[in-house]
Structures are given as structure tokens and as C-alpha cells.
Predict the 3D structure of the following.
Amino acid sequence: MRTGMKIFAGALALALGHAAVVLAEPLQKGCVAGDSKWLLHIDLDNFRSTKVGQLAMKHVLDEVLADIKNKSKLDLGPLIQRIRSVTAYGTDFDHEPDANGILMVQADAEAMKIFEGLLAAQMLSDSNASVSKVSDAATPLYTLNKELFIGIEPKNLVLLGKSRKQVEKAQSVLNGKTKSVASTKAFSDLLPESKSFFFLAVADGLSSAQNAPAQAKVLQMAEGGRIMLGETENKLVAELVLKAKSAQVVGQIQAVLQGMIALASLSQSDNHELQRLIQGINVSSAGDIVTIKLQYPLGEALKKLEGEIEDRARIDGKSPTQSETNPPNQSN
């Protein structure tokens, strides 16, 4: 059990990363700090119900968990399957993002018992005390090697962060002592009411972010933005929304985006796959909002994901069987 908690934290990170072709219950605004500048929310319940999610969970996450089980003898599959959502948020873009970021995991009651059991077992079995309790408050706070702080919260929530101060602040948000997004203007007009998307990323204050890559300069023309991913019966849907200071800036952003799309279409006229992708893009505006929506055939998206899985298997020296790589039945 010495490495149990490290593996659990790693598995959460992998769940976040691999699901990110990936919103769980609707985002709970009352759980996110009111001074947040960015957040990511993955609905793993929703993701598992999609065809893309079923394929990704089977061929990517299952493989990772199998490797963990082989190396550590820990079967984390039942635990990961009981995680309902993962939310990450932070209060700064540029200064020590690890220190100001919070990972919030919502699971079911059984998962919380498993997690607390791992913590207790690690504390009992590890003579070096890599896991220790640093607070006996109503909601206990633990630390892993004094590098990761873990809060066990009501309503089946787990908080993880590299800064004790930030985790304790996140706890105060949950108990109502510190303002949340629900009671401030953070992410105004950017948090969606829709529940049909499984992945949500939101950022506020984009124009003030430093050291943005050249490819992202168009984003700095906006005050904030969001990206959402979802799946309909036969389409994979992506939506980018940018919020500008004024109608004039909206026009500038829209012109830049439409110009980029037109240039890509002309310069890659022989690339039929790219042309098909471009045809699925729609750019529109209303007030201070620019919306870029992309719809792509679900069947084609599944084939591409399947191809990526096969390529990775070859690189890793594995040879997936036909039955393993066939995507779920879908309608085109």
C-alpha cells in the first residue's frame, strides 16, 4: 500500500487527461471559488454514456488501469468507475498554476469508503508516514509526502491540491464561508445552462494573460471564453464561445476567424478530410459573444479514435484484436 495514494492521484490525473476528448452532474457553481480565472469540468457519467466515451474508456483508461494493477496489485477500476465528475479550477494563469489549482472529485458513497480505506491503510502500513493527517477539523485534511493535500468533504467530494492554503480555501467555499462562482460575476455569460456536453473549459481574463503562444493571440482579443464538447445521435459537437469587450471587437474576432478558415480552405484545397471538417464549422455573433460551432460525423470520429488506439498499440508493441478495436455501433 506504500504507493497506493500516489497511484490514486495519478489515476485521477489520467482520468482527467484521457477523458478530455471529454461535463458529471451539471457543474455545481457553489463549489467553485468566486475568484477563479479558469476551470475544467468533466462529466464522467455523461462521457461513459457516449459512444466516444465507451471506446475511449475501454481502450485507453482500461489499459492504464491494467498496467497499474500489474505493477501494484491494486485494482482501481471499481473506484474510477464510481467517480461521477472531475472539476479543476484555479485563480491565476501565470504564477505557479500547480499551487493555485484545485482538483475536485465527486464520487458515490462506496467510492468514498474505498478512498478513505486507502488513506487509513497507507497511514497504518507506512512506517515513513508518507500519508499523515494535518487537520482534525470537521472535514479532515491529509497530506501525501507534504506535496499533495487531500480534503475529504461532505456530499462525496474529495479536494486535492499542492497548496494547503488553497485546499483550505476550497473547503471554506464548500461550507459557505468564502464566496463561490454562484455569488460572484466570475465567468459571467460563459457558464452554460445546457447539460448535453460532457467536457467544459472556461477562462476569464484572457486579455491579461501573459506569455500566450502566438497561435492563441486571437483568444487574447477576448475577455473570456469557453470550450464545450458533446455528442448527439450522429455528430461529435464542439463549441467555442468568446466574449469580447465591445461589438467592434466582436467584429474583429469574427473577421479573423473567418479569414483563418478561408485561408485553410484555399491552401489545403486537395485535403478532402480537412475540407469536410471546415464545412462543419459555423461562425456567428450576438451582442458581445462570438460562437464557433463544429459538427463532425460521429462515425468518422470513432474511426479516427480507433486508428489512434491501433497506432499507439503498435508503438507499444501490442497488437489489438479486431474485436477489441471495433467501435460501438453507430448511426452515420
Q: What stands out?
A: The chain has two domains: 1-196, 205-332. The chain has a mean pLDDT of 79. Residues 45 and 268 are 38 Å apart (CA to CA).
